[in-house]
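Predict the 3D structure for this chain.
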Amino acid sequence: MKSELHVIRLVLGVFLSLLAKSVFAQELGPRPATPMRHVEMISTEVRELTSANDGQEYKLLISLPPGYHDPGKAFGVVYVLDGQWDFLLVSSLVPGQLEDGFLPPLIVVGITWGGQNPNYDVLRQRDFTPTKGRLPQTGNAPNFLSFIKTQLVPFIDANYRTRKDDRAIYGHVVRRVVRSVRSLPRTHAVQSLYYDQSELEL
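Done. Predicted structure below.
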């Protein structure tokens, strides 16, 4: 008998809870959609830089590490290709790796394309391919790599406290671009390369 009373009380409690929730929702009515707002990421800056080679505007997403505002410290830099997709991924993974002692504090620089409504698929096929293929937009990698070497890296070094002997590039790129990046002088451009390589349909 006590068992049956427990079951009845449980069912009754669930029923009253659902009833109260339904009445409360009806009283509130449908809520109007809230307007879209921009979200700012802590210790992150956005800069623009235009390539002197072809006039392409690039947007730089820059995440500063803990301790950056200590004027006596300098930091290594990770340059992240496809910043429109991978900057958030990399910049969110670094703090955990730092906390566990696997990485030192790093400046993360996401490289993506600026301008109005950039077509990322077309632009990455253009900038990540070193030679002309079937698609008309291909073959701009030499200009893109020159932009990284002669403009982007010096710009970051001039405006942030960087270690010039500790740079890396991370990205998902075409295999032939990996060979091109490897050919950059390590003393000026990058010392490390982390990538997932693939072939685009050209």
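The chain has one domain: 44-198.
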